[in-house]
Amino acid sequence: MKFTVSQSALMQALSVVAKGMASNSTLPVLSGIYIKAEEGVLEFQTTNLDISIRHRIAADVEEPGATVASGKILTNIVKTLPDAAVMFEGGERVLTIQCDKSSFRLNTLDPADFPEFPEYDLDRTVELPSDLLSEMVGKVYKVTSKDTSRPILSGVLLTVEDNTIRLVATDSYRLAVCDSNVETSSIQEAFETIVPGNTFHDVLSLPSMTERITIGTTNSQVVFAFGDTTYVSRKIDGTFPNYKQLLPPSCNTSVRIDVAQFSAALKRVSVIALTNPSVRFDIDPDGKIMKLSASSPDQGESTELLPVEVEGNAMTIALNYHYVFDCVNAANDQKEITLELQSTMQPGIFKSYSKINYLYLLMPVRM
């Protein structure tokens, strides 16, 4: 095997496939990067057996071949090289790398031991604008559960129907839903799948991302394809919770809140809430005031008055401020957010409307 490639193209390729490397596997080959050279193309592959990533770039290939090199070592080498031509030679047991005045000699692994890239026959596919999808995933993926005993809650429900894309995530304490209109002429029927939350976010953060991304499913896989990159992940099996039954048709109190003011006030009040993450919301419709307050037996108390627009009854509710912050951060591109309440012991629902409609339901905590 012998080929030459630019340092910048090589560095981007390595950063694309890096997410697929196993970090603490007992199989050394899984922490490596499979490199295959043929007819002007370099193919890079990584896998941790849950996800597999394949990425291709152009290169000057003199002799075809394949090898597996340590992903960590190779990436650290390429990072330090100048933006110049990098020449690779060897591959079966040893790989030599030369760039400018630098040279390296790496021990390699047998490419025959590297798992084959998953084959797939897609049942359904949908093509979506990646910028919009990335923005939507950013609003919901943090709400997924870290509890491994309920894997269905670690996923994001993606549905595309009637030119509407919707993402839903929940960890059973809170629920995030966002939707947006999008042209989806490529599908004839509703598209639905559950994608691991972190996987969804990682895919859309890859530096090789193109303007549009194709998402397809098989019985056990979700496949993302864009440009010269293919990302295959396991699909989460099971039925996503029926979140629509949690959403009440109306509310007793509706509060319109300035997002920037709310965020700043919440930061100040929560300084006291070290051991008890509860912040109390007292809504006064007559005075058009929302009072935020927190208390701690060891630290003391804090309060803040916030001017708001209120429709409905006076109401008091306590919410976990960490979870409220996640909501505020997701809506920080909005000027205003609405809080809808039923009663002290029923969930609070934050809503904002724009290009992306956003809903965040949060279970109350005891006062």
TrEMBL record:
Keyword Membrane: no
Stretches assigned to the DNA polymerase III beta sliding clamp N-terminal domain: 1-117
Domain DNA polymerase III beta sliding clamp C-terminal residue range list: 244-366
Keyword Cell inner membrane belongs to the record: no
Keywords: Cytoplasm, DNA replication, DNA-binding, DNA-directed DNA polymerase, Nucleotidyltransferase, Transferase
CC terms in the record's Gene Ontology section: cytoplasm; DNA polymerase III complex
Source organism superkingdom: Bacteria
BP terms from Gene Ontology: DNA strand elongation involved in DNA replication
Subcellular location: Cytoplasm
Chief localization: cytoplasm
GO molecular function, one term: DNA binding
UniProt cross-references to CDD domains, sorted A to Z: beta_clamp
Any Pfam family: DNA_pol3_beta_3
Family of this protein: Belongs to the beta sliding clamp family.
Purpose of the protein: Confers DNA tethering and processivity to DNA polymerases and other proteins. Acts as a clamp, forming a ring around DNA (a reaction catalyzed by the clamp-loading complex) which diffuses in an ATP-independent manner freely and bidirectionally along dsDNA. Initially characterized for its ability to contact the catalytic subunit of DNA polymerase III (Pol III), a complex, multichain enzyme responsible for most of the replicative synthesis in bacteria; Pol III exhibits 3'-5' exonuclease proofreading activity.
Subunit-structure text: Forms a ring-shaped head-to-tail homodimer around DNA.
Protein name as it appears in the record: Beta sliding clamp
Organism field: Parafannyhessea umbonata
